[in-house]
Amino acid sequence: QVQLVESGGGLVQSGGSLRLSCAASGSISSIYIMGWYRQAPGKQRALVATLTSGGNTRYADSVKGRFTISRDNAKNTIDLQMNRLKPEDTAVYYCNVKHALRVDLNYWGQGTQVTVSS
After folding, report:
1. Residue 83, class by beta-carbon neighbours within 10 Å (0-12 exposed, 13-18 middle, 19+ buried)?
2. CB-CB neighbours of 86 under 10 Å
3. For 5-12, what is the mean pLDDT?
4. Which of 9, 48, 88, 110 could pair with 36 as two cysteines, CB 3.0-4.6 Å apart?
5. Hey, what's the torsion of the CAs at 68, 71, 76, 80, to 10 degrees?
6. What would the mean pLDDT of 68-78 be, rounded to a whole number?
7. What percent of the chain has pLDDT over 70?
8. CA dist., res. 44 & res. 92, Å (int)
9. In what order do the strands lie in the sheet with 67-72?
């Protein structure tokens, strides 16, 4: 069982930066994929970035070059550095950890609100 708690959301002006952190309790083995997703009002939840244990990353086109996903093994956190934020980045951001092979092992955090003002 994995529990995830996000932090770091808030209100920021366009062009600013925020760093989201997801604290994971429980062991995340090497066969898990870690990621961040977001859901804007009236829209479906969408992928922002993922990171495998092998260090492979994947980003949504809309955030490439601005966002960076990383893992701090010592703190057992999954972080998302967000730079040059835009109003369209406004959403609830969710941390996700899922098993690469077992669809039943898929964990979500409670979400953290990010609001970017123009």
Report:
1. middle
2. 14
3. 96
4. 48
5. 10
6. 92
7. 100
8. 11
9. 3-7, 18-25, 77-82, 67-72
